[in-house]
Amino acid sequence: MEEMWRLVIMGAPGAGKGTLAERISGELGIAHIATGDILRAAVEAGTKLGQEAQKYLEAGELVPDEVVNGIVGERLAQEDCVRGFLLDGFPRTVEQAKALNGILTGRGEELSRVLVVEVEPEVIVRRLSGRRVCLNCGATYQVETLPPRVEGVCDICGGKLVQRPDDQPATIRHRLVVYEEQTKPLIEYYEQQGLVTRVDNSGAIGMAVEAALAALRAGSEK
After folding, report:
1. Residues 122-151: tens digit of each pLDDT
2. Are 36 and 150 in contact (CB under 8 A)?
3. pTM (2 decimals)?
4. Which residues are catalytic?
5. Which residues are CB-contacts of 11 (< 8 A; sequence separation ≥ 6)?
């Protein structure tokens, strides 16, 4: 019988969580659900919950949990999630985690694993502080791993490349501290349920994908 994967992935800014999520979901043949995307999609589609979310977004306020939970619940009910899913960006709090548990329990389902992507803080600082963005077309470069052909000039349109204010080392370190403080209770919540699998993404992305898949499959065989 084919393994049914219902996963959550978590990771600090710059940990490579999004890329890892895409690769893992592709390898497992399950839906990759980035909650920022489904929130925007609900707003664009004009669904009842999307309209509710739009009010808060236009006011520059956080969308309340009950609205986000509802949008996630609707997305998980779609056909492409029948074979499993990987949630990226939700839950962010213990309360949201409890809501997710309620959604799944209501359908006779349960979470398989929670992947916690780990990268040494200084590696993240180096990655993000080396990021450069084109002022004209928005193309993104990385001075070490994906440099432009000409320093400071976009390969695509010739526009000027700049470092965003939130990619300054001091700002990055602050964001990492905030992430750690906000996420610790959520990781502990899932650790108490024995659901956490930690994935080191300090090296090449392919190595992290292989390690994550191996850990998931080993866990499913126990």
Report:
1. 999 999 999 999 999 999 999 998 999 999
2. no
3. 0.87
4. 17, 92, 131, 164, 175
5. 17, 20, 116, 117, 118, 119, 201
CA neighbor of 10 nearest in space, from 116, 124, 118 = 116
Q: Which two tokens stand for residue 75?
A: 């997305």
Q: Where are the domains of the chain?
A: 5-30+83-119+179-220
Length of the chain: 222
**C-beta separation of 57 from 41 below 8 A:** no
Per residue in 29-83, pLDDT tens? 999 999 888 988 999 999 999 999 999 888 888 789 999 999 999 999 999 999 9
Is 3.40.50.300 the CATH number for 5-30+83-119+179-220?
A: yes
